[in-house]
């Protein structure tokens, strides 16, 4: 069974709604180097792109609560809107999942500084049926080692909710890079050892630090989303994962709509192509292909 653990829920349900929306503002550098950032994607676009996979986890990111003193770490685009609070984000994800329950698994998003965060976690699980959490400490501008985050981690551990954390870089100006560094997850996993965590994007470009964390903690994983279109980084991170014996701790993910499941799968046999004519060590493609078929739902306690 192929599970895509990393896809984003479009905020536009229909093509007409997407076309009527104003164009998103410029956010600086694009998410990937070979094409513009996606915009105006719809629910149908998402479901169509998920054709090659058996199940897909879908989520979005909740904005900072009203009156929050920190600058917004998110930019509005065709997927995320910096003003969408947790309730609106989670209702949208739950609606998409209800429309395609055999394919999709919904994760909530909450903001740790929201005074009603625990109530929203209870509503999202009990009323909406969402089964995990997506957090982006840099985009949401919260300290992952702070007390606000700790109460979210504690409740998630209590409820058995896995958390997928955006880790790594971002082109958004006010998204604090330090708060998205994977070294912080070492202390989180030590404090909450039963909490299942996924390091999104293998924490690019800090894959070396990420592999140290997933090697150490049995309930911490990393996904391979948004890696393949930077071929040297893709190769070096997976070669390091090979040398440190953590290929078995990687999960398949695409980061749709930035990349699709199909192109992410198609890239795997080509990971060593840039080495032609060299004696550099190869990534074992057979072991990397096993990531695609890994039992991600079992790993995350969702089986």
Blueprint (SSEs and pairs):
Elements: E1 3-8, H1 15-20, H2 43-49, E2 55-59, H3 86-99, E3 104-106, H4 117-126, E4 133-135, H5 147-159, E5 163-165, H6 183-191, E6 197-199, H7 207-216, E7 220-223, H8 231-243, E8 250-251, H9 261-267, H10 285-292, H11 296-299
Parallel strand pairs: 1-2, 2-3, 4-5, 5-6, 6-7, 7-8
Structure notes:
This protein has one domain (3-299): TIM Barrel, CATH 3.20.20. 33% of the residues lie in helices and 10% in strands. The model has no long low-confidence stretch (mean pLDDT 93). The chain is an alpha/beta fold and 303 residues long. The chain has eleven helices and eight strands. The strands form two sheets. It has a five-stranded parallel sheet, with helices on one face. It has a three-stranded parallel sheet with strand order 1-2-3, with helices on one face. The termini are close together.
């Amino acid at each position: 069974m192929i599970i895509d653990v990393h896809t984003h829920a479009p905020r536009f349900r229909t093509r007409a709604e997407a076309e009527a929306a104003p164009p998103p503002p410029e956010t600086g550098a694009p998410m990937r180097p070979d094409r513009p950032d996606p915009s105006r994607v719809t629910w149908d676009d998402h479901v169509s792109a998920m054709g090659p996979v058996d199940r897909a986890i879908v989520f979005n990111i909740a904005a900072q609560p009203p009156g929050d003193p920190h600058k917004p770490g998110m930019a509005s685009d065709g997927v995320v809107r910096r003003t969408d609070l947790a309730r609106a984000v989670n209702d949208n994800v739950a609606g998409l999942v209800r429309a395609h329950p055999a394919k999709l698994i919904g994760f909530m998003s909450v903001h740790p500084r929201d005074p009603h965060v625990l109530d929203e976690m209870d509503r999202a699980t009990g009323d909406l049926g969402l089964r995990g959490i997506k957090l982006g400490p840099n985009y949401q501008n919260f300290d992952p080692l702070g007390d606000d985050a700790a109460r979210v981690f504690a409740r998630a551990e209590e409820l058995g909710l896995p958390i997928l954390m955006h880790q790594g870089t971002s082109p958004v100006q006010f998204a604090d890079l330090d708060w998205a560094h994977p070294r912080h997850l070492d202390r989180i996993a030590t404090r909450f050892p039963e909490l299942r965590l996924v390091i999104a994007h293998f924490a690019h470009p800090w894959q070396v630090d990420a592999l140290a964390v997933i090697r150490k903690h049995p309930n911490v994983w990393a996904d391979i989303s948004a890696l393949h279109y930077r071929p040297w980084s893709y190769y070096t991170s997976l070669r390091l994962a090979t040398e440190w014996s953590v290929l078995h701790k990687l999960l398949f993910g695409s980061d749709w709509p930035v990349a699709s499941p199909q192109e992410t799968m198609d890239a795997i046999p080509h990971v060593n192509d840039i080495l032609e004519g060299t004696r550099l060590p190869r990534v074992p493609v057979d072991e990397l292909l096993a990531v695609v078929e890994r039992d991600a739902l079992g790993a995350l306690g969702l089986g």
